[in-house]
Write a structure and sequence with these properties.
By secondary structure, this protein is an alpha/beta fold. The chain has helices at residues 30-42, 44-47, 61-67, 80-89, 125-134, 165-173, 188-197, 200-205, 214-222; strands at 51-55, 72-77, 95-97, 110-116, 136-147, 177-186, 228-231, 243-249. Strands 3-2-1-4-5-8-6-7 form an eight-stranded mixed β-sheet, with helices on both faces. 42% of the residues are buried.
Length: 250
């Protein structure tokens, strides 16, 4: 099967949608894809020219995006289906199948470890953060994102443990020096739509996509990374944020 539509092309193989991973190129997945993609875009300067590891690469679109600016980048995932897909869809991205709580790398192997929307899938989150820090070089950077359980719809069977802002900060701070905790929010266009129509997330999960109202379907198709904003410091409004992004140094 090939990928078509928002975020995809007609030649790249497409992963099966199970609800576990975000997949580009599917119009009704476009909101979730762009919501994830915007954080990768924000990390370009973090990985630029540096040796990077993406721990939990999933479909591989993020590793592909970052690989164009990183000095070197390795994508890692535990799932054989995911790593096989990355090899086929993004042949220029080195990909390794490995255990996220026992990373197959020596101490101090990378300048940056990026792990987006992965930690909520893991049972031993503390061991995972410890491993990410272990493979970082002195002054290396760790970036972890996760949905904010204060605002995320409950019931995702693939998430053993979702995190609140303080929980994520404390989890990472036990192993590295937290530099910032950012909150991802809807930008002005999506916020204005919700002022009139209500929650866009709720509208999408209310029923099958082929039964969405035309206004919902039209908006979902049109969402871009420019429809989201990352806020830090006093403007972060973490309690109301959609996703959390923590940056730390060793």
């Amino acid at each position: 099967m090939s990928s078509k539509g928002a975020g995809g092309d007609d030649t790249k193989p497409q992963m099966v949608i199970t609800g576990e991973r975000t997949v580009p190129g599917i119009w009704h997945e476009n909101y979730w894809f762009r919501r994830h993609e915007v954080v990768y875009e924000a990390l370009r300067d973090v990985v630029r020219g540096r040796a990077a590891l993406e721990a939990g690469c999933g479909e591989g679109y993020g590793a592909d995006l970052l690989s164009h600016v990183a000095g070197s980048l390795v994508a890692l995932d535990y799932d054989a289906y995911a790593t096989g897909h990355v090899r086929a869809a993004y042949p220029q991205v080195p990909v390794v199948r490995g255990n996220l709580v026992a990373l197959p790398y020596a101490d101090a192997s990378f300048d940056v470890v990026v792990s987006l929307q992965t930690i909520e899938h893991l049972w031993d989150q503390d061991a995972f953060v410890a491993e990410c820090v272990r493979v970082l070089r002195p002054s290396g950077t760790l970036v972890v994102s996760t949905p904010n359980t204060l605002t995320f719809p409950p019931g995702n069977i693939y998430h053993p443990k979702e995190l609140e802002p303080d929980e994520l900060r404390d989890l990472v701070a036990a192993h590295a020096r937290v530099e910032s905790l950012a909150g991802l929010h809807h930008g002005p266009r999506l916020a204005a739509w919700e002022d009139t129509h209500g929650s866009l997330v709720d509208a999408q999960i209310a029923g099958p996509y082929d039964q969405w109202p035309a206004a919902v379907a039209q908006l979902v198709r049109s969402v871009s990374t420019g429809d989201f904003v990352l806020r830090t410091g006093d403007d972060a409004d973490l309690a109301a944020s959609l996703d959390l992004v923590v940056t730390a140094q060793v």
